[in-house]
Design goal:
about 525 residues, mainly alpha, globular
Length: about 525
């Protein structure tokens, strides 16, 4: 009998810790990046233009490389490895990287030519003409990152499929380093900070993102230029990509809707919304993406081997893990968001009003973190089963609901003329509610498809974590009331420590196994 290429639950947990530390490194650098950028430019038109300009390059990358990596390439590549067809696996990798890179280059060129028409109409329709022109120019520059990231993103998939997680986990840190250099060096070549330096910093970061993974790829096997559609597995990869590309387009449409709606609000609204999303994404990377990235290759391998019992067992453990962490983080982001943002960003051009607006948006985004975390695991479970249609169908329904709810909420929540209590919070709330629905729907559909996925085992963690999170929230409210006159550093550190101690203490009292195993594994990894 051939040895399974899937990892055990314990090995997956260790791999998740490797990815977690990579995300933490990236997150810390991301925080530094955001602090540097925010203090340099503040929540104003220049930064609104930069964040809006990222939309088209990011959309092309996500649709091309993200579609291949997230849904189709890793399962097919894993199938070749499971059959011990190493030569076929590397021919597939070479052909997919070549073709995806070429498609990305053509799309980037077309987008650069059409940017003067697309950007003002779709991304910044409510902005002044000079801001629209700046956004167009920044978009055209950053389209170069699309080609680089398309190749680098697939390299991440190759390394992960071979159970190599460290270098892919470090790659986002390299991108952040590029942006930090852009803000500190390239943007400061003139008397006034120049936002074009950030755009060139993004290109530098993309190159570093690619470069850090090359040593690992060289150790594994030969990837070469191979523009051949006829290579075995290529057509299947691109066939499976189709629905996934549509699903990713749905996500990008939601981002574009946020940019368009917030362009009609007070200056700095989109920056506050984007900064709040970054903080949520940092937490999501620690919780959902680290576990999802670690478990996906094993789910793909178990699916290829036909071991559905092992598939469901790994999946249910991953779901328990993300829910155990997501629920207390929701409470923490809502209650500690304002002092943490004040501590991190409030300097230079970043004002107390910018802090208040970002914390306002973050509190609404935090409501949906459990849904986001479930999606990181459940969507990958469908992809491992070579089913890209189901998540896409659910995602399209979610997108329509998100747009409808956004139109409603921005009229009843907040004030479009205020930054500290802006109407953009309605966009965050609609995202959270539709994401929670999307995660629960995928859970229900997957349990029907697999005849249950140890549901009672997963649900058991929910009520225990909810109870511990509620106790943590009560403790935090009391502590924060005693720290009203304290500084942001004291409030954030004391509040954070109290929250962690109370949550894990209550979890231990409630008999949550993860409250013992998770800290133990973290300590073992640190000692190594």
């Amino acid at each position: 009998m051939a040895t399974s290429k899937a990892l055990t639950n314990r090995q997956i947990a260790r791999a998740a810790l490797v990815v977690l530390f990579g995300f933490l490194a990236s997150g810390v650098l991301g925080l530094i990046r955001t602090v540097v950028i925010s203090s340099t430019f503040g929540a104003g038109e220049a930064l609104d233009a930069f964040y809006s300009a990222q939309r088209i390059p990011e959309t092309i990358f996500v649709l091309v490389a993200g579609g291949a990596l997230g849904s189709s390439f890793i399962p097919i590549f894993s199938r070749f490895l499971a059959a011990n067809d190493t030569e076929g696996a590397w021919r597939l990798a070479s052909a997919v990287i070549t073709l995806v890179g070429g498609i990305a280059a053509l799309l980037a060129l077309a987008a650069a030519l059409l940017a003067p028409l697309l950007v003002p109409a779709l991304l910044v329709p409510g902005s002044p003409p000079e801001v629209q022109a700046l956004t167009v120019s920044l978009t055209q520059i950053m389209l170069l990152t699309t080609i680089i990231f398309s190749v680098s993103g697939l390299m991440m998939g190759i390394l992960n499929a071979n159970q190599m997680f460290l270098l892919p986990a470090l790659a986002p840190s390299m991108y952040n380093i590029g942006l930090i250099i852009g803000a500190l060096v390239l943007a400061r070549t003139a008397a006034q900070p120049n936002v074009y330096g950030l755009a060139w910093g993004a290109i530098l970061g993309a190159c570093l993102h690619l470069g850090v993974q090359l040593p690992g790829l060289r150790r594994l096997g030969p990837v070469r230029f191979l523009p051949d559609w006829r290579v075995s597995g290529v057509r299947e990869v691109f066939t499976l990509m189709g629905p996934r590309v549509l699903g990713l387009a749905v996500v990008q449409i939601n981002f574009a809707v946020n940019a368009a709606f917030s362009s009609t609000m007070v200056e700095g609204s989109y920056t506050a919304l984007t900064t709040a999303w970054f903080l949520l994404f940092f937490a999501l990377g620690v919780i959902g993406q680290s576990i999802g990235a670690a478990v996906f290759p094993s789910l793909s391998a178990l699916s290829a081997e036909g071991d559905m019992d092992g598939f469901k067992q790994r999946l249910s453990s991953a779901m328990r893990g993300v829910l155990f962490l997501a629920l207390p983080v929701t409470v923490g982001l809502i209650l500690l968001g304002a002092p943490a943002i004040r501590l991190l960003f409030e300097r230079g051009e970043w004002t107390p009003e910018s802090t208040a607006g970002t914390a306002w948006a973050l509190s609404f985004f935090a409501i949906g973190i459990a849904g986001h975390s479930l999606l990181e695991v459940l969507s990958r479970a469908f992809y491992a089963l070579s089913d890209t249609r189901t998540p896409v169908t659910v995602g399209i329904i979610s997108m329509v609901a998100n747009i409808v709810l956004s139109l409603i909420f921005i009229r009843i929540i907040g004030d479009p003329n205020s930054l500290s209590r802006g109407a953009f919070a309605g966009l965050a709330l609609s995202n959270s509610l539709t994401t929670l629905w999307e995660g629960l729907t995928l859970w229900w559909l997957l349990r029907r498809r697999t005849n249950g996925i140890n549901d009672s085992y997963v649900v058991d963690i929910v009520w225990r974590a909810l109870a511990a999170s509620a106790g943590m929230g009560i403790g935090l409210v009391f502590v924060l009331s005693q720290l009203e006159s304290a500084g942001a550093l004291t409030t954030t550190l004391v509040g954070g420590m109290v929250g962690v101690v109370v949550f894990f203490g209550l979890s231990l009292l409630l008999g949550v196994a993860e409250a013992r195993t998770l800290p133990r594994m973290v300590l073992q990894r640190i000692r190594r």
